[in-house]
Amino acid sequence: MFSGRLTVCVLTLRNGFLVTGESSCVSAANFDEELGRKIARDNAKDKVWELEGYALRERLTA
Predict the structure, then answer these.
(1) Which residue of 3, 23, 53, 59 pairs with 39 in a disulfide if CB–CB is 3.0 to 4.6 A?
(2) Rounded to two decimals, what is the model's pTM?
């Protein structure tokens, strides 16, 4: 049970790969749905950039 404190964003990339991002707050009283969605999406996009950096490094060292 998350009591309205957790937001999860799932991005589906063009190749079908799924990337998730999350945001949470300490108290349900402080929960802001719009802010939670933005933070979760930003976190998911940051993970995509990490994967892109890894893929680029692999291509450069091959």
Answers:
(1) 23
(2) 0.85
What pLDDT, in 10s, does the model give residues 26-61?
A: 988 989 999 999 999 999 999 999 999 999 999 999
- Provide Rg for the chain, Cα atoms: 15
Answer for the pair 21, 40: CB distance below 8 angstroms, yes or no.
yes
Sequence ranges of the domains in the chain: 6-61
In the Cβ-directed half-sphere of 30, how many Cα atoms lie within 13 Å?
6
Residue with tokens 């964003």: 9
* Cβ neighbours for 47, distance < 8 A, ≥ 6 positions apart: 19, 20, 21
